[in-house]
Amino acid sequence: DAPSNLQVLFVKRADIDEDRWSGSVSFPGGRRDIDDADDFETVRREAYEELGIPLNTPDFILLGKLPDYKIMSRQTTNEGIVQSRFVFLHVGTMAPTVKFASHEIEAIQWYPLDSLNAKNVETRRVMHGLTQFFRASTADQRLLVSELFGGTFAYFPSLRIFNKWNVWGLPLRTISELLEMDNRRAVDWPMFRVSNPVFQLLFVDAYHGYKEWKDNMPRKNTKHQLALLLDTLIVSFIVLTILDAIRTIGFFIGVATGLSPDARSQNKLKEYWDNNTPKPH
User: Fold this and answer.
1) pTM of the full predicted structure?
2) Which of 160, 161, 176, 261 is geometrically suited to a Cys-Cys bond with 186, CB 3.0 to 4.6 A?
3) Could you tell me if 47 and 85 are in contact, meaning their C-beta atoms sit under 8 angstroms apart?
């Protein structure tokens, strides 16, 4: 394949308290206004307001639209939020002039499309505590989440561009879908990993297998995807059985040696009665 001179435009959003994507690296765009006729009008309006780019001129052509993506976030409880993604190509003779709105955009960066590939993916640079991804509404729920996952971290794959910006999450997924259209290897698999190996095997790997099967079933070998899902479930069942057996064996060993909580309690109770019960004369 011949090298491509195509470049992708990224934006770094300004730090705004009320903006859920504050400071993130993403693509141009924004929320649909009530006056917008459709999503296509929204993306053209946002591109002009944020960057001064007139997508409705002959210098830009619409290549197509990626599938809508339902947004799931720990930062919002709104249902039905969907991101519509349009791909435009600049065909003008002069490079487009970008004048970004500083109150919305902190900086912009063009990046070579050829450099957005799986070889440049880093798997441990972007890290967040796993407890951030649970919506605990009560004090008991928050305590339970903290006890179970307080020391567990989630690692997300990311692309480091110009050694200063991390592209991850939905923007990375969008890049991956673009590359797949050109039969290139996807760059967002696995979607994330966790520091707890048991949680990784039982839940994360099973989720990845299900997601891979669900997303690609119409396009790939269905039998292969079903086999992948079945294998994941079987492995998870085997591991759960082994863990339960280890717990049971450990309990009986503890009872036999006096190290289990029940045995310790009985020993303390026996010692108390021995020390406080009058001895017969």
Assistant:
1) 0.68
2) 176
3) no
